[in-house]
Amino acid sequence: MNAPFKPHAGTIRLADLGDVNELRRLDAFVLAHPHGTPFHRPCWFVSVAQATGNRAFALVEERGGEVVGLLPLDAIHSPVFGRVLASSGFAVGGGLLATPGADPAALFRAAKELALRLSCPAIELRGGALPDAGGGWTLKTESHCNFARPLAADDEAELLAIPRKQRAEVRRSLGIDLDVRVGREEGDRAAHYAVFCESYRNLGTPVFPRALLDSVLDGFGADADILTVWHQGRPVAGVLSLYHDGAVMPYWGGGTRDARALRANDRMYYELMLHARRKGCARFDFGRSKTLSGAYHFKRNWGFEPEPLTYAGWTAPGALARDADPTSARVALQIRLWQKLPLAIANRLGPLIARGIG
Hints:
Elements: E1 11-14, H1 20-32, H2 42-52, E2 55-63, E3 66-78, E4 82-87, E5 97-98, H3 104-117, E6 122-125, E7 137-150, H4 155-160, H5 164-174, E8 179-183, H6 186-203, H7 210-220, E9 224-231, E10 234-244, E11 247-255, H8 257-262, H9 264-278, E12 283-290, H10 294-301, E13 306-315, H11 329-339, H12 343-354
Parallel strand pairs: 4-6, 11-12
Antiparallel strand pairs: 1-2, 2-3, 3-4, 3-5, 6-13, 7-12, 7-13, 8-9, 9-10, 10-11
Pfam families: Acetyltransf_6
Protein name: Peptidoglycan bridge formation protein FemAB
Domain BioF2-like acetyltransferase: 165-300
């Protein structure tokens, strides 16, 4: 699988992801690139593949011995949703990261060749440089939006930056007997995952295996942590966040049924803003949400403006387009059925299914 693809002015090859020096080289390229994201880093796409039993790949373009293009990929198999080559798997970002010396068209051709070799009838590019429509590629615009803004200069300014109605909810949360803890140890992980499991069941979504969250935490090291909100000795809300290029990204979070009345989620995000600023962050990246969804409106209520995203997808000739859209009739029915499952059953079955959602 390490043989070069079709030759052109540069060289495109599959990276050796078992080589520590290769991983460091790719990570350095991502960290130095102005459009690099946590989801381009090997500690993401390699870690999530290993934790879910999938396979990680990286197409690398080199010119004169220098990396000029990187396309991280996870080959994901699901008995429910089929096979897909995603950039990046289990992420809201990724895609092709290229410098002016790269040949994006050649990298996209190599991605299609790789997909066919792996019997993956679909490719999903969740950001980055995008291919032109045609040749099996389709572009989807405005199905999702991202939300990000600068952090304020101090705690009070951060509170005042929140629109009045949402600010009132945060103030109420500050008057409730809630404890906030930040860490990466086993107690933090166990508390967060317990909350995460209940939250996902309530949303009708199969929960990811805990190994996935642990793998990301271990891979990112100091660039990831968990903030948990406790009430009377019980965790009621928690979020696993990533830190990259001066921004904090709350990524895997949720709350129990009690969290709403306790306003624990409001407290959680406000405390994360304060914690991130103290760590030296300048931006709060609230991540993507489906346009006009509940999460979309929730983030707008916090004063974040939506930025429409464009994704690219490819379907092999003669294959059916992959359907993992939660608003489709088939998937929406699955969500409603999942919400009715007892929590213990959802927690047992969820990781088996979620490892293939991607």
